[in-house]
Amino acid sequence: MTDPSTSIPSTPAATAAIAQTRETGSVPPDDPLVSRYPGLDFRFKLGARVKQAVYGQPYERSQDDPVYRPLKIFTLDPSVSRLEGSIALVNVPYEPLEPGPAGRVLRVEDYDESQDCYYSSINLDDPAILIRNGRNPSPSDWLFHQQMVYAVCSNVYACFRTALGRKLAWAFDQPQLKLRPHACCDRNAYYNRDGCELCFGYYRADSTVAGSNLPGGFVFTCLSHDIVAHEITHALLDGLRAHFSFPTGPDVLAFHEAFADLVAVFQHFSYSEVLRTAIRKSRGDLVNAGLLTEIARQFGYTTSGQEKPLRCAVDVADSARSPKQYDPSAEAHELGSVLVSAVFEAFNTMFKRKTERYIRLATGGSGVLPVGEMSVDLQALLADEASKLASQFLAICIRAIDYCPAVDLEFGEFLRAVITADRDLVPDDPWGYREAWIDGLPATRDLPIGGRQSFRRCLSLAYT
């Protein structure tokens, strides 16, 4: 294991794309849009959300600014061993920060409702902290908790900006999303549109826990990479489609949960140590790579009384790995797992398709790995392919939001949007991504869309 303080920082592809782009500065609030766009407020009007996207813009670095701000984080959660890559040095897009940290679009405000107090704020521009690339990861260091939520949220925000190719607006009339790492003593974390905030609770673990967790010890949801990525995705999706928060159909809230889980899962592939460890342990079989497919492991281990994560991307109904069936009466998270497992199935199909040539070369054409450890070079090749593919799948999922209806979304409509959006960008599809999406869908019963057509029929129409 390498020391994260001295290792090369991980830089997600989306973060690199955003951080290295220098765009023109924001339109100042005192510069009337009418003078810049003739006809505005005469022939047409801009909605409040459009104006917010113009004025509430992220920081655009100048020529003399650094490209990145390297910060240390937990890549999964504190219960995972450091030998499995649980700690990483990650690059986030640079911006000047006030204590909090507080930037243009994200601001950490550490107010604890249960204790009715504010906690002191970290200053990431303090020279003593800058020279160490941020504070060292520690469950007992509440200043690191603030650093953790800021870093993870910054990189997820960069993923959305890169995939959509534009700046984003929140669903509320404020330029900044508040991040509250110690919002309350509660086994919960949630996005609150009315408060313009993400709230992360903390709680005492059960007396019976699994893994390396301490019975009765404090667990902080803000230290779970999955939970932080999940909640910031709720906020970003709410800014793109505000009406997806209204349960007009069984799939609407389930989609919100499924989409947030997909973002959290694909973020795992950004961290090289975690990815290589998972590839080595599973011998290249992503279905059995728990480090990559499990969601909120520590939360599940400390609340369920058994060794089970909160959710898993490989969600099956029985030991034969038959996919779960679509059930509109299921709870939102449970119903959303059907979509998550379908997308991950397509991802796994593409991973096998793109890496089978490496397996053939490593096995002399047999395609059967010998007993024992895979070679280090093969592990590196598989990890690189998995990381690139995860970035592509995440971008495909995010771009599809622009092709979805504004209200009353159904799973079939999202999956058709995925095919349409990808076809617009890559018409020839040489690797058969869209074919993998269609073939990877579970054999569910008919869905309530388009005359109750099946998953496969819906996508086949869009694909052809």
What does this structure look like?
By secondary structure, the protein is an alpha+beta fold. It contains 15 helices and eleven strands. The protein has helices at residues 13-19, 33-36, 48-55, 127-130, 142-164, 225-240, 250-267, 272-282, 290-293, 297-303, 332-362, 376-400, 411-425, 433-439, 455-463, and strands spanning 68-74, 87-93, 106-108, 111-112, 117-118, 177-185, 189-192, 197-204, 218-220, 294-295, 311-312. Strands 3, 6, 7, 8 and 9 form a five-stranded mixed beta sheet that branches. Helix 6 (225-240) packs across helix 7, helix 11 (332-362) runs antiparallel to helix 12 (376-400) and helix 13 (411-425) packs parallel to helix 15 (455-463). The N and C termini lie far apart (48 Å).
Instruction: Look at the structure and give the mean pLDDT.
Output: 85
Instruction: Please provide the count of β strands.
Output: 11
H-E order:
HHHEEEEEHHEEEEHHHHEHEHHHHH
Structural class: alpha+beta
Sheet of most strands? 5 strands, mixed
Radius of gyration (CA) equals 22 Å
- Strand residues, percent: 5-15%
Query: How many individual helices?
Result: 15
Which geometry do the CA atoms define?
A: globular
Percent of residues in helices: 40-55%
Q: List low-pLDDT spans.
A: 26-31, 443-464
* Cα separation of the termini: 48 Å
